[in-house]
């Protein structure tokens, strides 16, 4: 990609804010004639044409917002989308959804298509394979409203809605400790993913808080049902096997539950299991799964509210906010009861 | 909605085909000057302006196609979308997804937004609550390429990709009969839905083919996990309870499996269960669920291929085709083995 001249470039050159440039181009009454003249001259000099088209398109109300999610097959993301649609539809917006399939190149292609598809803003949960965020930066430089949710980009100054993964994991593991579990394993997601990192951090903190020594043999990268089916038997063959598993998501927890039963363990008497998500899966396993609800619908609602606020006030530059949605431990059949200890 | 003048209206008035009108407006060399003149005069007379905009937009390659699905939370639809994306991406297209949430009014709003969102064509699976299809007719009248999949509209002459629900159900029920089941129940979807109707028809045909008398007490409208949990106990209390359940989808089957186990029945020894979909659910139940795979990915691929063919050949009018994707019985743990009888 060759570098296109953006509103940010013009702002930097003139020593004003991007929003001033944007407003100057729209002939906003708050901007002085001198500034408008300076901006317009520089725009001409830098051949700032692509944006002119983008601007004229953007100023049209299309009543469409976009969402980019990594995988539609995850119940969490379809819940978030339902929450987004709930707010968007009440405000008269259609919601246009794109799937990055966890592929960086696709995410880039989608962000490039966004402006010509005439969306007025976008809600994004980032792909696992994206380590580079220039494509989002470019949208921001063009004053295109973005809100990140769940998998956010720390380095970018936008509105964000995040799940309190750390506290969710901490509460879950503390519950296991309170119901008598002594050797708690963690089936973890890759640590470069913020959710993988935060959930593992919550696990470790719960152990520390309760004076339990961290045992590296009890942590393993295992975040799919296939891995759980393959790795659970190896895990249980250890000299000192775990009496509880805290899994980073529900599918992995379900794989652990079914494999443990096949190996002859009683759940929750011999081994307790907790998942993370509270999707359809959790009501279908036997016993039904104790898990952490992420309140996807609420995350979607909150994200859409933040985005619509930006869209409705394009000329105001409020400070980006980060909203934290609390998780909730949903007790079902794969954990013991508090009273029984 | 007031009636907008469409290409179809002009074609009818002049006694030519809509594709001739469309080509005349695009100044296609195959169309005579006389016809072009007639078309253009009528267009002016009828104030056929909205389409002029639509046409000019449509003639731009945006490399975007749209998909409208009823519910993203269903594994089947997310599989179809992955198949669509597989084909679309290879051809350089982005896929823009909309969710109707089974609400007719939303489906109408989405189809209205499609043209201004500059998609080059659309793939649709119809909402449960749509009994009226004027919104799709309007797109067709404007030469906007449409392919229906799974839940199709019989009355509209477009390309369609359908699942062989009838044979899928028939094979499943015949398998139950061959493994010794004598009283097979059917948990059915509403019969105004083509899939509900076809699956029930397959169930009935299998019984007839095998000389088993149809018993109305063994068919019940029950197509959600909640209904299965509520209705299975009532069902089993009958004087002559079933020894097998064929459920219209996997979630309902999962609800039946868990409820039967709670009631003390052994699966599959006392009661066999078969679902329909082969989603994530089916590997997570205990025992894992015998079910019918609909090959969603393949349906998506085939639908996208048909749509891209239409998009690439806008001026040719080939006869609409209907492709049938075969289902497949996936044997897991909720049915008995053939050999054991």
Structure description:
The structure is a homodimer of 341-residue chains. Helix content of chain A is 44%, strand content 14%. Chain A contains twelve helices and twelve strands. In chain A, 50% of the residues are buried. At the A-B interface, helix 5, strand 2, helix 6 and helix 11 of A face helix 5, strand 2, helix 6 and helix 11 of B.
**CATH homology superfamily name of the largest domain in chain A:** Response regulator
Number of helices of chain A: 12
N-to-C SSE string of chain A, H for helix and E for strand: HHHHEHEHEHEEHEHEHEHEEHEE
Which percent range fits the helix content of chain A? 40-55%
Sum up the overall morphology of chain A in one term: elongated
**CATH first level of the largest domain in chain A:** Alpha Beta
Cα(first) to Cα(last) distance of chain A is 62 Å
Largest sheet of chain A: 6 strands, parallel
Mean pLDDT of chain A: 88
Q: What is the quaternary state of this protein?
A: homodimer
**Structural class of the secondary structure composition of chain A?**
alpha/beta
Number of strands of chain A: 12
- Quickly count the domains of chain A: 3
Strands side by side in the biggest sheet of chain A? 2-1-3-4-5-11
What is the gyration radius of chain A calculated from CA atoms? 24 Å
Strand content of chain A: 5-15%
> What are the segments of chain A in which pLDDT stays under 50 over at least 5 consecutive residues?
50-58
Please name the CATH topology of the largest domain in chain A: Rossmann fold
